[in-house]
Amino acid sequence: MKFTLNQQEVEIQGVSPETPLLYVLRNDMQLNGPKFGCGLGECGACAVLIDGKVARSCSVPVSVVQGMKVTTLEGLSQDATQAEHARVARDWEAAHPAAVPGMPAGKPAADAPVKAVYRLHPVQQAFIDEQAAQCGYCTNGMVMALVALFDHKPTATDEEVTQALSGHLCRCGTHVEIMRAAARARVLIAQGGAA
Predict the structure, then answer these.
(1) pLDDT in tens, 162-178
(2) What is the largest CA-CA distance in the chain?
């Protein structure tokens, strides 16, 4: 069984076609963004995007995603541009002035592999900016629902945000912060995704 997971082709073998996608994502693919909440598709903690539409992975058999594109919370971030990689390197050198060539002060060798720099999706950044998580269990579902909404309609109204989040449960009561995060995400998206 083959599908695209976070922009990478994957092939799953030895798994029953009826196995919930959530189990494959968490157990076989080691992706912990989607959470097991209720197991009934009612709380939204397990939400993922399947071909750009939000879906409850606990109630979607893995066979359904054959040939489709699945995106988890981990797949929302994008590789940064070369300029951003250069900025990170300059920032590192500025923070470690003693680490000049010829003086081994912890600076990686020139041929050492460079760790990738990632940009958060504007919705992820907005959740951080607005501190829109308390226990964080519902956050995956809330973020995925908003990503699906804003990908379809970047200028979605508060009413449309409320509708998109209906059925996603937050037991900690961070609804006000989540709505502020949605408003912040709208601004970040309008600015081209800049934080």
Answers:
(1) 999 999 989 888 899 99
(2) 60
Phi, psi of 192 (to 5 degrees): 85, 20
Topology of the domain comprising 2-75: Ubiquitin-like (UB roll) (3.10.20)
Burial 138-172 (b: 16+ CB within 10 A, else e): bbbbbbbbbbbbbeeeeebeeeebeebbeebebee
Separation between Cα atoms, residue 106 and residue 103, nearest integer Å = 9
In the CATH scheme, what is the homologous superfamily, with its name and number, of domain 120-190?
[2Fe-2S]-binding domain (1.10.150.120)
Q: CB-based burial of residue 3 (10 Å sphere; 0-12 exposed, 13-18 middle, 19+ buried)?
A: buried
- By DSSP bridging, strand 69-71 and strand 2-5 are parallel
Cβ contact 23:34 at 8 Å:
no
Model confidence over 11-49: pLDDT tens digits?
A: 999 999 999 999 999 999 999 999 999 999 889 999 999
- Residue 31 to residue 14: CA distance in whole angstroms: 18
Other Cβ atoms less than 10 A from the Cβ of 28: the count is 15
Q: What residue spans define the domains of the chain?
A: 2-75, 78-119, 120-190
Q: According to DSSP H, which parts of the chain are helical? A: 21-23, 82-95, 122-129, 139-152, 158-165, 175-190
